[in-house]
Amino acid sequence: MNCHLYLRKDTLYLPTMGKMAEGFLRGVEPVIAVSVSNADAMRQALQATILRGNPLVPMLRRSEIPPPVLLKYAGVRSWSAFERGMSFWTIEDDGTSFRIVGQKKQPNRMWNDDPAQIVTFAPGSNVDQVIDRMIAILQDAARQ
Fold it and tell me: What is the CATH number of the domain that holds 76?
């Protein structure tokens, strides 16, 4: 399971990450947007998004790829506008353990794992522990 979390202007955006046949992920509906100041709403949104997992979605030709699903929720017209002021994390579950991975934008405009922002949970950790830690990370990031 792979969950993408985007923090922009004190709002947490959680798209469903659909898995294509080639193993790549793309954001699809449903998307949940909640205020980072509301810990209970974030908890419910994270639980729902993680529970949904990565449903299979069709592989699209380049000409069929729609604009990123998050744009309409954020009220912006382009991905570059959405990225301005955005912070990005992933929650990963490989079946034995969870990881929270902060992403860092590189000079080539790509997002890569930031080794300074990786939290690895012990095998057997439960999803509630991961969600509690993620909420703390998000609220701390929103304060900065």
Answer: 3.40.1590.10
